[in-house]
């Protein structure tokens, strides 16, 4: 009678080899020596994709978010995306998180968790070229054209606006379009660090807050991320107070 052969899969054999090797290594480690902590290459870390709005001054806040997830053990990648598109990606599970978005806009989307406290405190304003009037009347004058975007308009739903609205979701060129006289008016968001251009007039419209967002599949991470956000927010408060 033939003796049945024992089949060992290549994967199982590799695991046994790694286990035996690690035991042998630990056995040979000198007494009193420090244990060696293995460094996990980025390629083996879980991937984490974060969308963000590409606007002047965004980089420091994006770095705060990247640092949080890197310390949690993720290999972080970022993807610039206009506000509504980025939130759609997040809602549809195409990305893991969004760096910061307007709270009122974010709550319109499913499968998205808004984390507190706010990461960015900002001001929504009407920027005006120096030669034009810059008051509430500018908003209701049908002869005026205002450069704006959907997320700004969500905050201005209760404002009476009769001016023609020129919608452009990519906002990083807004100030340049004003300076080159492509438009005379534009809605714009300034965060607490930014200095308003001295060659523009400004009409304050709203105080607004931007929040970090994660996909609902990462709900278990929320308490830890919010704890880290509170620490970062307190550090920003101290920095901007000086």
Can you lay out the helices and strands and say which pair or pack?
Layout: H1 10-27, E1 47-52, H2 59-71, E2 75-80, H3 83-91, E3 97-102, H4 103-106, E4 112-114, E5 120-128, H5 136-140, E6 145-148, H6 150-154, E7 164-167, H7 174-179, E8 185-191, E9 201-215, H8 222-241
Helix pairs in contact: 2-8
Explain what the structure shows.
This protein is of the alpha/beta class and 242 residues long. The chain folds into two domains: 42-120 and 210-241, 3-Layer(aba) Sandwich (D-Maltodextrin-Binding Protein, domain 2); 122-208, D-Maltodextrin-Binding Protein, domain 2 (3-Layer(aba) Sandwich), CATH 3.40.190. 33% of the residues lie in helices and 25% in strands. The chain has eight helices and nine strands. The protein has helices at residues 10-27, 59-71, 83-91, 103-106, 136-140, 150-154, 174-179, 222-241; strands at residues 47-52, 75-80, 97-102, 112-114, 120-128, 145-148, 164-167, 185-191, 201-215. Strands 1, 2, 3, 4, 5, 6, 7, 8 and 9 form a nine-stranded mixed beta sheet that branches. α2 links the parallel β1 (47-52) and β2 (75-80). The protein is elongated, with a radius of gyration of 26 Å. The N and C termini lie far apart (88 Å). The model is unreliable at 6-31 and 33-39 (pLDDT under 50).
